[in-house]
Specification:
Layout: H1 4-20, H2 24-29, H3 46-54, H4 59-67, H5 81-90, H6 94-97, E1 103-105, E2 111-113, H7 124-130, E3 135-138, E4 151-154, E5 174-175, H8 180-183
Parallel strand pairs: 3-4
Antiparallel strand pairs: 1-2, 4-5
Length: 197
């Protein structure tokens, strides 16, 4: 039996897909140059964000909320970031999309962080790229190695740079690879981030 939470998640993702994934009919009706921005913050909560917006401390959020749409995402356990974010990106359940944990088993033994290789179905950026649209994906869970798309992917493997002594990009963390030169100057090491930040 399908749980109530799973039914809600499926309904929410269906609505999201209907709004975000362009069909031929909506593409023809949409004004030229119209863009879709999907912003996701892991573990963010409107109960924490809204008071900051009201106090004027998050002006970009205020602009995004006034010019766009917001909503709540209802999720089902296990609430592991790679699973949740891949479900959002694909509209499919973990059993379908294949991302099941933070780590993936290696054929010869051992593990590595889960990534785009484990995803068995297309993500939104693959669908948009296939439809001829340009995409930009930054820091989305389980996106390394960064896939070839019509646009740019800066994978989740860029964020771990904060925990390394020397900042530097891992191979495959950005696609196309030449875009890494635009990302690298903005990387910081953990030693550059103070407590006040």
């Amino acid at each position: 039996m399908v749980s109530r939470g799973l039914r809600r998640l499926a309904a929410a993702l269906t609505v999201l897909a209907a709004v975000v994934v362009p069909s031929e009919a909506t593409r023809a009706a949409a004004p030229a140059g119209r863009k879709v921005v999907l912003v996701g913050l892991d573990a963010a909560d409107w109960q924490a964000i809204d008071p900051l917006v009201a106090r004027g401390e998050l002006p970009t959020f205020a602009r995004l909320k006034s010019a766009g749409r917001t909503g709540l995402l209802l999720s089902t356990p296990p609430l592991l970031s790679p699973i949740v974010w891949t479900t959002i990106a694909t509209g499919r359940t973990p059993d379908d999309h294949g991302v099941l944990d933070f780590m993936a088993d290696l054929p010869g033994g051992g593990q590595r962080p889960v990534g785009s290789r484990e995803r068995r179905v297309p993500a939104l950026w693959n669908l948009f790229s296939s439809a001829g649209d340009t995409v930009a994906v930054v820091g989305w869970w389980a996106t390394a190695p960064a896939e070839d798309v019509r646009g740019t992917i800066v994978s989740d493997r860029v964020a771990p740079q904060l925990t390394r002594a020397a900042a530097g990009l891992s191979p495959g963390s950005v696609s196309p690879a030449h875009q890494a030169s635009r990302v690298a100057p903005d990387l910081v090491s953990i030693s550059q981030v103070g407590l006040e930040e």
